[in-house]
Design a protein that fits this description.
Helix content: 40-55%
Strand content: under 5%
Largest sheet: 2 strands, antiparallel
Shape: globular
Strand order of the largest sheet: 1-2
Structural class: mainly alpha
Number of strands: 2
Length: about 130
C-alpha cells in the first residue's frame, strides 16, 4: 500500500489506514503502515490486543490512533516515503535518550505521555526544528 498523506487545514490524514465504510482508523491497516505488529499497536493505544484484533475500528482507540496517523502522515510527506517514515519511528533518537520513537509510544508505563511527546517532535520536523 502506498501511503498518500492528505493535509486539510493542518489536519493530516492517511486515507489508506481508514475503514471506507466508517471513516474510522483501522488498527490493522495502521499497524501495517507503521511496520509494527497489532500487539505492539495495542500496547501503544492502551488496549488489549484481543480487543483490537476483533474490533480494529473501536471508537475508544481513535484519538490515540489519530495521533499516530498524523505523525506518520507528516513523516511520509516530509521524508518522501513510507520506508523513511517507518525508519524514523524505529531508529534510536538522541532526543529520546537513545530510544526509538516507537519504544516511547509503546511503553505507556514508563512513558505515559510518550505518544504525545513523539507527535510534538514530528510536528517540528517540517519546520526544521531538530527531532
Amino acid at each position: 500500500m502506498a501511503l498518500k498523506p492528505v493535509n486539510h487545514a493542518d489536519v493530516w490524514l492517511l486515507p489508506e489506514v481508514r475503514d471506507p465504510a466508517t471513516g474510522r482508523i483501522d488498527a490493522k491497516k495502521l499497524a501495517k503502515a507503521l511496520g509494527v505488529k497489532q500487539a505492539q499497536l495495542a500496547r501503544a493505544l492502551g488496549v488489549d490486543r484481543r480487543v483490537l484484533a476483533s474490533k480494529p475500528t473501536l471508537p475508544r482507540i481513535q484519538a490515540r490512533a489519530g495521533m499516530l496517523e498524523r505523525a506518520l502522515a507528516i513523516l511520509v510527506d516530509y521524508l518522501g516515503s513510507e520506508e523513511a517514515a517507518r525508519a524514523w519511528f524505529h531508529a534510536p533518537n538522541p532526543n529520546l535518550e537513545g530510544r526509538t520513537a516507537w519504544e516511547v509510544c509503546e511503553d505507556l508505563k514508563r512513558y505515559p505521555q510518550g505518544l504525545e511527546t513523539v507527535v510534538r517532535m514530528v510536528e517540528r520536523v517540517p519546520r526544521g526544528i531538530p527531532s
